[in-house]
Amino acid sequence: MKKILVSGCLFGWHCRYDDGDIPCLDERFLQWKAEGRLVPVCPEVFGGLPTPRPDSQRVGDKVLACTGFDVTAPYEAGAIEAVRLAQENEVAFALMKEDSPSCGSTYIYDGTFTDTKIQGQGRAVELLREAGFPVLNENMLDQAEMLLKEQEK
């Protein structure tokens, strides 16, 4: 049975910067969860950041908190841990939370803290892709379902 790396907030963990979650309630996702396929990860928490924590956004190669504090090091550590978990569990792909400075796969916030999104990827997604893992987001479950079927042939 192929596994899927998944953002902790989609899995149902209260690990977002605001201590919230955004659980994915799609029946396919819930089925994968019931089957034990999902490997949850929160790169921010796994990198040592608390919950709740100040909102952070990518600015070039850095990650800055809304307070101006540079939080690049814990984001990097969490991204490395996400890759380690993906490799250890031989995941088929990762399903990550869009817009996040760690987990965004097509869009992230632009670093101005004005709710402006730009094309880009979070640091964990960047490292996962560099390691050869396909990365999708919660809006791509049709593609995820097809990819899982292909990899299980």
From TrEMBL:
InterPro entries: 2-thiour_desulf (IPR007553). It holds the Pfam family 2-thiour_desulf. This is Uncharacterized protein.
